[in-house]
Structures are given as C-alpha cells and as structure tokens.
Design goal:
single chain, about 400 residues, alpha/beta, Rossmann fold, 7-stranded parallel β-sheet, two-stranded antiparallel ribbon
Length: about 400
Amino acid sequence: MVVTPKIRGFICTTAHPAGCARHVADQIAHVKSRGPLPAGPKKVLVIGASTGYGLASRIAAAFGSQAATIGVFFERAAEEGRTATAGWYNSAAFEHEAAAAGLYARSFNGDAFSDALKSEVVEAIRADLGQVDCVIYSLASPRRTHPKTGEVFKSVLKPIGTSYTNKNLNTGTGEVTSVTIEPANADEIAQTTAVMGGEDWELWIDALAEAGVLAPGARTLAYSYIGPVLTWPIYKNGTIGQAKIDLERAAASISKKLASTGGQAWISVNKALVTQASSAIPVVPLYISLLYKIMKEAGSHEECIEQMDRLFRDRLAQAQPPTDPEGRIRLDDWEMAAPVQSLIAERWDQVDTARLGELADFAGYQSNFLKLFGFGLEGVDYQADVETHISIPSLA
C-alpha cells in the first residue's frame, strides 16, 4: 500500500516502514562516523527501546561499542489496512541492521510494567548473555498497571497548586494562542508519579539483581528533563516534575543497592527534543520551536542520536561521569547555556502567529515530528507501494 501521514492531534496514526528503516540507518551512520567506543558497555538492556532516546541509546551502544542489546517495548504490528506503529518498524529495522553487522539483538514486545515480562527478559539474559553491564530505562507510557496490586494508574500533564496560563503552539495550524491548564488534584499527582516515577525502574533492577544477571559494576540510567523557568509550571513544578523527583529517589536507592558490586545509577537530564512524549505537553512545542532555531544558528543543535552518542562517548566513558550538585548527568548543558536561554526569554515575549516563522523553527519541528513516523526522509519513495507487514526477526 501507499502510506501517507495521517495526523490526529499530537499523534500520527500511520507509519512508513521504509522511512522508519531509513531513519534508523541514518542514526546508525552517525554513530559509526564518530568511530568506535572500546570502553563502552558490551551487554545492554534498554527498557523502552523502540523510539526516541531509548532507540538512540540502543543504536549508540550497539554500533558504538559493538554491544549485544536486548530491547523491551510495547508496539503494535501491522493489521489489514493498518500500518504497524513506528516503534515496531524501528525495532525491525534495528534488528536487521544489527544482524548484518554480526551483533546480537533480541526484542520483547509487551507490558514492561508486568512481572511476567520482567521474568522473560531475565531468562533471556541468563540464557543468551549471562549478565548485562548496562541498563537503560527510557519508558514513556500514559498508564501503568501495578504488577502486585493490579491497580491501573493514569498520568496527567497538569500544574500543581494553581492554574497555569501561557502561550501555546497549535502544531496542526501553526497558530500561537493562549492555553490555560487547571491544577491537578492530589490523586492525579499520585497517579502520575506511579506511572512516570521511579518505582518500575527500581523493580526492574531488583528483578535483575535477584536473578544474578547484573554484572559487577553494572550501570543503569533513566532519562529526565528540567527545562527553563518558563516551562516549570507545566513541567518541573507540575505533575511530571513530581514524578521526576521520585525518579531521582529511585536513582539514589538503586545506587545504594548496587554499591557493594561497584554499580551505580544515574539520572541523565537530556535536551528538549521532538518526541512522541514531548509533543503532548502544552507550551513545550512552542519552546522547542524557538530552541531549535537558536541552537541551529549557534551550531549546537543535537537530535536524540547525537545526545546519546555524547552520553556514551563523553560521559559514560569515564569511571565517574561529571554530574551537577544533585548527582545528575547534564546533557542539557548546551540548551541551558545562558546565551541560549536569554534569547529564548526575549523571543518568547515577541513570538505570535505572525512572527512564528521569523523567530522559531516551526518547519524544523514539523519535519522532526514526521520523521518520528518515517515520513520526510531523503531517499525514500513515498509514492511507491510498500509492504507494511514487516516482522521483527527475534519476535517472529
């Protein structure tokens, strides 16, 4: 079938298999162009491995340090008249590229929050790899079923305490409007923390450690974001921010548990980028559009793969990566540089619908959004019929 983008809100309901494969290949090419990472991890588990930072982490580890990788995700295969999700096509492309390079790659598709899937992954590590030396936790989900109680939690994107009003970009129309978001109640805060906090990360590490499949000195990272003051009401000081505080609690707890074997946990604070998750957060798309223009003009712009390559190459290559006073690895350092944020603040006051094209890179935002789903990649014939029923080799 001929696959075209069908956008609904902040989601594209179609994905292009050849485009997703090209996107994966382009990321692999970037990592390979930077040379080998002899000191990188060799056996890596990525939880949330099919898109965004998780996918980029898997690519950076595999094609930077020749690591064997296991990826965990929850994606949907193609059905009659319906494409698979982008994450499914990304994972299929990754496995094919890994096989061609002689690299071990195995994937698990299912509920990463469940005890059952954790057990499956543990057994696969034991059987195939023995142990893993690096665990990346990059899971993004709007809901979670607790593995012990069966309770279903749902996350919300809301401020805390008072309502929040600010500029917002309608990514469908390109209009800069105003949005007001009402504050979360106590139950919504608790549920968001249950979904997006650190409990599941800690449960994963506990399961791996108890099974003896964590190598001595194993490292584990989860990803976070802080951002500038103007986004704090909806992010850092909002429901997401409360969840991220719990993520930091989990990092400290995990580090204590791993200390006896020389292991450690870190939070890596990454740059704001167009991802399926960030597209859903009010105010953030306008901020990202402004940020892209400024950082591209400064020559400091990075996408997910550049960020993760820098993480593995510049930070994790060190025995003790440099951190901020709270012990976090800061890959958002270029974004948060004073000259960049000063321009953001100035242009935020000036931007409206008429000046969006002048002050922001909305075209770049739109392009990156479509690339998430395999559209707009060079070298792909989007008028051609493509096979949409693509298998992931290790799941076939």
